[in-house]
Specification:
By secondary structure, the protein is mainly β. It has a single domain (4-125), classed as Sandwich (Jelly Rolls), CATH 2.60.120.10. It contains one helix and twelve strands; from the N terminus they run ββββββββββββα. The chain has one helix at 120-125, and strands at 4-7, 9-13, 16-20, 30-35, 43-48, 53-59, 62-67, 72-77, 82-86, 91-95, 102-107, 116-117. Strands 1-9-6-11-4 form a five-stranded antiparallel sheet, with no helix packed on it. The chain has a five-stranded antiparallel sheet with strand order 8-7-10-5-12. The longest helix is centred in the C-terminal third of the chain and has 6 residues, at 120-125. It is globular and about 55 Å long.
């Protein structure tokens, strides 16, 4: 599985650290944060039909399991200087949150429950033909 990290710029302006979120490969239509998650809790556990996202740990850290239906990979987000691009049809689960984690999500689409695949077997059955293992 190929995943894409996006590097973000940090600048200091009059003693204030600024994170600059450029280089996002889509128009941002929704922005939200996740925080206050306990280390044993999991978030995500779904994939999207069309929505694309970039996840950035603004503070703290967490792990993200990425699954394309054939391969799984675990990455760690632990810096506001890098984000992970989640394309559509990537099952993702965030976990192992540090107590101080604030996770930023930049999304290509507004919230639409119909875009979510929350059942893993449904996700596998709806993979685009080019993503089906062994095709």
């Amino acid at each position: 599985m190929e995943h894409h990290f996006i590097d973000f710029t940090q600048k200091t302006d009059n003693g204030v650290l600024l994170n600059v979120f450029e280089n996002v490969p889509f128009d941002i239509r929704r922005v939200y944060t996740i925080r206050g998650i306990k280390a044993h809790e999991r978030r995500g556990n779904h994939a999207h039909h069309t929505n694309r996202q970039v996840l950035v740990a603004l503070h703290g850290s967490c792990k993200v399991t990425l699954d394309d239906g054939e391969n799984q990979e675990i990455i760690e987000l632990d810096s506001p200087k890098k984000g992970i691009l989640l394309d559509s049809y990537i099952w993702h689960t965030m976990y192992d949150f540090s107590d101080d984690t604030t996770l930023l999500c930049l999304a290509s689409q507004p919230y639409d429950e119909k875009d979510y695949m929350r059942d893993y077997s449904e996700f596998l059955s709806k993979l685009p033909i080019e993503n089906v293992p062994g095709y």
